[in-house]
């Protein structure tokens, strides 16, 4: 087995010495306050140890990474029927997501673009008794800790500025692809995105996706086939319009968030989570992308 | 001068004998209740008489026809500066209005597509003291009567089902092309569209656009140049994606509404208003289009 | 009657004193050689005199202005059946004409965008015995002179660089909306566009469109209704993506070409042709647009 | 090790008993003649045996599968510089490929959509001495046999009907993203696509992509990193607009062709080639997709 702690350390040192660190997301005012110098990495080996460097125990806003967890919960609740309301294809265009939704009659391209995640939020809202609490408990249970929480000021911040999400939700509603009220769906969605977790917690939470559906507690959460599908979706759609580039450079299923987090995994091998708040032009963590690329290049561990 | 009363009568008889009457708009539930057999025509000669046949004195929901009046009021209030926020080109695509708005950075193609009219509503909201009352008085004053009113149940009906308009308004807001709150702008916009007027009242109200800016009371409302521009816009953009067809078949500036009304005019000659609630596939009044085409063909009165 | 000669002179002086003259089209190498200081205006009164200033007797490449003449010939040959293969709506988007053609299954938006004009060229090719000669004779006959010719080096120049037209023609062919070979259609089309005419000749040639279908020789070329349709199309689609702006600023049916020519007309009143090779950003003659706008503003002669 | 021969036999029997076999591609007239009942599967284990069932030794038109081989040759010749002219992202839209190319200034989304493959063909044309012969030898050498050939009547058939490819190539040319003449590039491209190979030959030819760049003869053809990139591209872009679905259902990098062939592979494990000429609605082999999905489900061998 490679000396993972030493590999992470090398990557950490190399990445932090980079001058160009990207730019912190400013469209959610609360996120703009984060110190760009944060950088953490946590590697969890399936059936083995964990390794961490830097601020891997500092909580950050997981944002779109939550879409994977929401999708998993929705599949757990209602199974494959969700695919009647959402497609599984890459979205292609970054610049006209509403256009695509309009042309394709309100069926979002996949569950990881905003419109698709809003449909998933609608499904959770319809199928959970106490949606915010139940979803929080689902994540805590996967992670094995009790102190994961929503950041309500981040959620509120999005609520006041998330006009594109309101536009998407209303467009979905006009195509009868939302069951609940726009306000209720987005309130849940903004809370879901505001979850704060550490690199270490994220690696633990995503464990079941690298372990054939069995979570850290060795409890079966989803079938092997369902897990395979989520991983396939992360690979093809997990990085906005940089999904192809990520598959190409890194070669792992993964999901990024504008809070600067990235979770990536190699089935039956490991989960690797990074956090660095500076984003590249496509909205993915700049240091995180570099670190992941170096890790798979150095270790030759990728799906390809 | 032709015998206009007799011409209108002939057109009326010919049109009402048509079996195919189109379909009443159903997307606003309140409008779905209207009797499809209504049909009225009112012709007002500039500097001359008025002629009417059928239900030309029955009030109906003017809907998008109100966009011309809102545009006129906005120009009266703030002049040419409105064109910084709205373009003057035909929209081309019916099937992806949000797409266009997205690609063109939140600048609506023209003031007669919904997104453009929402920007106009925002301008009125920012520049009128008591927007709903002031706008109503503007219309009443142009028309010369006091009993024109909003239909609040129609306005409310749109508010509960107008998800595409909410999507458009939020998209405009995301591009900083709305100053006021989405809810406030749309509340005003839905009221504006819910105005109820008769064919006769509409012909009188639009008089100033056929009379170099002077309204029925001979008061100058807009400059000759401003009037010319509004007429040009009606010709190129007044009939959704059937604007070219209307210019082609009828050859008059005009504006239709999903309530089944159409106002058309020949500058310095006449204003011709029709109302028949059955719509063709493109959302314009079927009998109204036929009547207007027959009128310009019979009388050879068109701008071309 | 206004003193038209003096009005033209004033406009000419004012326009030529403008410092910004636009840019000569360079995408057809032959056109790039033209002196940008050329400027001519010719006004032909229906049933009356002609007036000219500047280089109104200098031949220039009429380019897209020829599309109106080709359309007229196609209607003369096969009547309204052409509208099965071409629509009559403004194209909206400048930036994705092929996109539009692709989404709309190979039916061009109107006969004045390139794809539409290529379909018209295909119709002429199928219905004329000796297409190039017959079309040339049609134009000469309308104009009343024998010395109008194609510029074969301009036609050849387009043939070697007109890749977008080849793309459009092949796309039309893939939708079965071209009967003849792509090469043959484009050879004819490039020749048609290469016609060289003077402002004076163009005003005479377009006479029938301002005179209810009767050409200068008082011969009926098209029905009143057909003429009305062509005029409506020029108004809504004659100026690329600046059609709305032109209707708005000038208020006349017209057609421009990248050679710097513009023909505009007021039915039953006049034909006004300008030529100035410098183009604005939208591809229309900069001085020509200014001159036309000043003419309609000064004389208050427009359709609105 | 599983009993692969028996697994293939089971899949073969199950798939051939399906009533719905899809439809043979008809847009290339030569391909329309193929018997829809052909069905072959060939599995090649890395460092091990080969297994075959059905018509796995019958040559068929590999069509778009050739795009992977052309890409490999282009990378071998000019390295990573090809990515200046082609992107690596999924294309998203099936219905408007030219639209995308137009909006994105002539840079194809990836090397496996037609426009991207045409750019690759242009690169080969510029960098091979005798392009058709050299490319054929490259494929023969990878495969280890001498009797692979172009089918010139298929190539010619495409040349006479491939109008969309002509449209794409001309559009690329208009954006200066083709160095050679459209005719020459497409002549080479249509020949490349017309290659005829058997399932068995394809499995052998693609061996280097499953073997870290080493071909069957144990010769290094591309670096490990280059191979990883090609595999990533096959996963994200190898199945037209069904790429997401394939990753989701099958979970292997692969490439399909309208001739009914599919090559898929699991790095360091196996290459699996299927051939069944009946296509599903998205243009991928119906029985082939089923067979691959059953294989990865039964064996639990996939990248996810």
Keywords:
homotetramer, alpha+beta, Beta-lactamase, five-stranded antiparallel β-sheet, 13 helices
Question: What would you say this structure looks like, in words?
Answer:
The structure is a homotetramer of 304-residue chains. Chain A is an alpha+beta fold and 304 residues long. In chain A, helix 2 (66-78) packs across helix 4 and helix 4 crosses helix 7 (163-174). Chain A contains 13 helices and nine strands. Chain A has helices at 4-16, 66-78, 97-103, 114-127, 131-143, 152-161, 163-174, 182-193, 199-205, 207-210, 224-237, 243-249, 286-299; strands spanning 23-24, 40-45, 50-54, 60-61, 196-197, 254-256, 261-266, 270-275, 278-279. Chain A has a single domain (4-299), classed as Beta-lactamase, CATH 3.40.710.10. In chain A, 46% of the residues lie in helices and 11% in strands. Chain A is globular and about 55 Å long. In chain A, strands 3-2-8-7-6 form a five-stranded antiparallel sheet, sandwiched between helices. A two-stranded antiparallel ribbon of chain A has the order 1-9. A two-stranded antiparallel ribbon of chain A has the order 4-5. The model of chain A has no long low-confidence stretch (mean pLDDT 93). The two termini of chain A are 20 Å apart. The longest helix of chain A is centred in the middle third of the chain and has 14 residues, at 114-127. Chain A binds chain D through residues 87-93, 100, 109-110, 224-225, 227-229, 231-233, 235-237, 241-245, 247-248, 251, 253, 267, 297, 300, 302-304, and chain D through 87-93, 100, 109-110, 224-225, 227-229, 231-233, 235-237, 241-245, 247-248, 251, 253, 267, 297, 300, 302-304.
